[in-house]
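1st attempt posting a full record on here, be nice pls
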Amino acid sequence: MYSIERKAEIISMLELNSSVDVNKMAAYFKNSKETIRRDLRELEAEGVVKRTHGGAVLAENVKNLKEYPLMVRGIQQFDEKNAICEKAAGLILNGDTIFVDNSSTCLNLLKYIDNTIHVTIVTNSLQLLMESAKLNNPNLLFICLGGVFNNSNFSIYGNIALENAKAFYPNKVFVSCAGLSKEKKITDNSVYEAETKRFMVEQAKETVLLADHTKFTNNGSVYFIGINQVSTIVTDNKTKIEEKSFIHKYHVEILVADV
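the predicted structure (as tokens):
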């Protein structure tokens, strides 16, 4: 098991229990105790856990905010998010102008875009731009919205970002969320992120929502769009039929990625 997978499972354990124990985790993962301690040190450096004698607990700021830093959200449900990105990338066509949000779910979208097609990508995500540098794909043109820098999640937001966004009418927007509710509401956890995403959805021809199975049983604190504003939802095959059945009445296409 890779470190990124162990960390994701450690976080899941901490969400279910108040603490984790190094000895028990070493036996569970079939790794050395030093390997587990290194994972915990890295998670503590990222502000997610507080190490204790023999184990760790969730950091207070994480428990209070109910939102993990972007780098950590990227490892939660990593396999599912990666598969969803691969499936969603098939919707991107030559000549498209798309908007990609700052969510951890969308971070891997770039690497699955066909490298023979030309695509313009508008974003408010500095993390996405850093990922683009690794690809070195000359067929992708990136435009970053200006505005206020949020150093906790590497996003750009505010009135300047919204003014910049007025210049663009994307063919498609690719966004994620904190949760979907049966009251046809799609929610986020950041009012700043929600404001930018809502505006770009209103400017776009199509909206593609990337949502792993955990989003169908969660709700965020900020409403940003209705399900009826979405063209396509891309999820993973761990989403239960009964959890997504209510979506069909909104005539939204559902694509399922195999994990």
